[in-house]
Amino acid sequence: MMPAVTARAHTNIALVKYWGKADTEFILPQTSSLSLTLDQFYTDTTVEFDERLAADEVTLNNQRLSEKASQKVHMFLNLVRQMTAGTSFARVSSTNHVPTAAGLASSASAFAALAGAASKAAGLNLDKPALSRLARRGSGSATRSIYGGFVEWQAGHDDTDSYAVPIAEQVDWPLAVVALVLDPHHKKVSSRQGMQSSVTTSPYYAAWRDVVAQDLAAIKPAIHDHDFQALGEILESNAMRMHALTLSAQPPYTYFNGDTLTAMDAVRELRDQGVPCYYTLDAGPNLKIFCEEPAVPAIKQRFGELFGTDNVIVAHPGPGLKFLA
Length: 325
Ligand code: DP6
Fold this sequence. Notes:
This protein is α+β, with helices and mostly antiparallel strands. It has 8 helices and 14 strands. Strands 1, 4, 5, 6, 7, 8, 9 and 14 form an 8-stranded mixed beta sheet that branches. A hairpin with a 4-residue loop joins β2 and β3 (28-29).
């Protein structure tokens, strides 16, 4: 039996989104993307390879997963076994740390933590680019959660050069992200299905690729110069243009619900009142509002009134993958 290894990875929120694959098996993206790792939401995962096991055993938040529910984890462990020529099955135990039962748990922190714990438990000693490439095979957004702070996933051309690079791991800028929990339920269209339908059916997909190239070029100087208005304008328009791909897909669909639109209006009203803040959202209805620290109280107050204070969670820039003793 090999020693158990525990790893912790935090989730990240994309400012310039990944929305489409060039290769679905290797999870190679259509474009590069850029995110901020967050401190509030993370996953701790322990992996132990044990030759006495007859199958992989996967536990999430103290509940044993069915064979079907653990299929993605099993496939991921197969990749690690291939890398080491190992044959043992593994015991995997994972805990999502999310402040409320909020639908904010993510495949990004899950597969980044699993990449770290499983590779080390199998006796591999991967560097960060290799960990990022491995995490990518579980879920695209996990590629970026190997690093803290601002991170770019460089699309690359193949499995060897598609991985994340840190832009600013230590963020010396008092940024906050206010996460709204508008609907904790499971999404109806997974990001995996949703992005594939955008690539194959939206007539706007080619334009999206141009948008991402322009937004990446413009957001890096905004990060470097701590230009909050430029950062905010880019992240908000990038999110809306990503969501335009769902509206323009065939069949069309949306991740927005009524509260999403109410919250978007409230962000614009706060801005009109002189509170600088901008929103983004992923494959679900929950807004994440970017601001600088002095704006946090006004934003908490307004969204607490609208949706209840328990549904407003303040996060800050967070760290990269860590091994726990
Ligand atoms: C909207 O990483 O969940 O959050 O690679 O199929 O597992 P798979 O998709 P996933 O998609 C993330 C989409 C997004 C944007 C982003 O994080 O860049």
